[in-house]
Design goal:
CATH topology of the largest domain: D-Maltodextrin-Binding Protein, domain 2
InterPro entries: Bact_solute-bd_prot1, SBP
Largest sheet: 6 strands, mixed
Organism: Stackebrandtia albiflava
Radius of gyration: 23 Å
Helix content: 40-55%
Protein name: Multiple sugar transport system substrate-binding protein
Keywords: Signal, Sugar transport, Transport
Shape: globular
CATH superfamily of the largest domain: Periplasmic binding protein-like II
């Protein structure tokens, strides 16, 4: 496999012919997927960059599996407008790397193909992947993407601030909302010029689904057809999370202090003592270990109100556009990139790199259940008496207790509806119940319209 890097503003278009079962290529021929058949030609991949040892090791593995394929990477996050324009003109990339919450919209618009024949032909066992992630990329009766990576939230806290206030990480892990409220009151500090220490950051607007689920509610029905934004439990969750900010002078004050922090540097909120606690994605553990290894930290899972671990999972997925000129190579590529052996090689490369730097390997959440288990067993040390071992254990526990919003043909519109509602509340433009009732109407109309259009396809 040869590799070509293309600037993100340029869409590489392969003119090689393709053939596959269940779909038609540009010449109208059927296309067949077969794990025993060689693949060759150009493969243009949009939205993926091998910027670290995890990506590069897996790209190298794909090269070994497809020596006669010339891969061109359009690096940078997937440009949705550029991609949809390419599809509409009949010159799409051969493979895309997208956010999982985009897959339903792409599928409903006919921009990507169902992967059932790809999975069957290449022998890809979709049952090896985490169920919530598969649900995000399944639409109708078909799978439209192969998921990879899982981002999950864990509770992160400043241990010194907790101790000074007579608190423990259990007081801020979300299991007891009264305890979180009380801890926030004790932890936050205000000086003459404003808020100087954020007590607790409930991470709105992004984490409304997490707080709602912790309160026993889903924003969307399991079949992706019915919005539940005005559910009393969702309203209560938003009221609670917003009240956390109001106790500290309002969201504006918290956001201003949050934005002033050196988030990726040694002056981050935990190292500087300007944040008591927050739920956040596990990838930040590596950042903290790199830039502030001696910061006073404490970790736990985020928990629902019954005390059970909970995480709102997100991540990426591979999908093959309709009209792909080389769907067979695209399928072989995504198979190799998400295979257990490939992930193990990538984890080995990451573990070796961390060891050379004298730093712990904090795990790798691949979305492949088999790979996750073997990586944890072979490369992760949770026996040490350190906060980093606590973080790793919390991460893997969270990874086993995830949920996601189901795929639907109005993904973007649905997300915009609830996020706009939360932002209106944060900006003081509406009360939680009013904002969510209005969002419910907007979201349900978008869902009804999109599902009706899907039924007419």
């Amino acid at each position: 496999m040869t590799r070509t890097l293309l600037p993100s503003a340029v869409l590489a278009v392969s003119l090689a012919a393709g053939c596959a079962q269940g779909i038609a290529d540009r010449d109208g021929a059927d296309v067949h997927f077969d794990a025993d058949s060689p693949v060759a030609g150009a493969l243009n991949v949009m939205g993926f960059a091998a910027q670290d040892e995890i990506g590069q090791t897996r790209l190298d593995a794909a090269g070994e599996a497809m020596p006669d394929v010339d891969v061109s990477l359009v690096e940078g996050e997937l440009d949705v407008q550029q991609f949809m324009s390419a599809v509409s003109t009949g010159e799409p990339p051969d493979l895309i790397y997208a956010n999982r919450d985009q897959i339903g919209t792409f599928a409903s618009r006919g921009a990507i193909m169902p992967l059932d024949d790809c999975l069957d032909g290449e022998g890809i066992d979709i049952g090896l992947f985490r169920e919530p992630a598969v649900a995000q990329v399944s639409f109708g009766d078909s799978v439209y993407g192969v998921p990879e990576f899982n981002q999950v939230q864990i509770t992160m806290a400043n241990a010194d601030l907790l101790a000074e206030a007579g608190l423990d990480v259990a007081d801020v892990n979300g299991s007891d909302w009264e305890a979180v409220t009380a801890a926030n009151r004790e932890l936050h500090h205000t000086e003459d010029d404003g808020l100087s220490v954020i007590g607790f950051d409930s991470k709105l607007p992004e984490f409304l689904p997490l707080w709602a689920k912790a309160n026993g509610a889903d924003l969307l029905s399991a079949d992706g057809r019915t919005a539940h934004l005005d559910d009393p439990a969702v309203i209560e969750a938003l009221e609670f999370a917003v009240a956390i900010y109001e106790e500290q002078g309002g969201f504006g004050a918290v956001k201003a202090l949050r934005d002033s922090a050196d988030f990726f540097g040694s002056g981050n909120q935990f190292a500087s003592g300007s944040l008591g606690a927050m739920p956040f994605e596990q990838w930040y553990v590596n950042i903290l270990n790199d830039v502030s290894p001696d910061a006073p930290l404490a970790f736990d899972t985020f928990r629902d109100r019954r005390g059970e671990p909970l995480a709102f999972a997100s991540g990426s997925a591979w999908a093959i556009p309709e009209g792909s000129a080389n769907p067979q190579a695209a399928c072989r590529f995504l198979k190799t990139m998400t295979a257990t052996d490939t992930w193990l090689a990538a984890a080995q490369a990451r573990a070796d790199a961390r060891a050379e730097e004298g730093k712990p390997f904090t795990g790798l959440l691949t979305c492949n259940v088999e790979a996750d288990a073997q990586i944890r067993d072979r490369f992760v040390d949770e026996t040490t008496d350190s906060v980093w071992a606590e973080a790793v254990t919390a991460t893997y526990t969270a990874n086993a207790h995830t949920f996601s919003l189901p795929a639907n043909p109005a993904d973007a519109e649905f997300e915009a509806a609830w996020q706009d509602a939360v932002n209106r509340v944060l900006n003081g433009e509406a009360a939680p119940a009013e904002a969510l009732r209005e969002a419910q109407t907007v979201a349900q109309e978008a869902l009804d319209t999109a599902w009706a259009q899907w039924a007419q396809r």
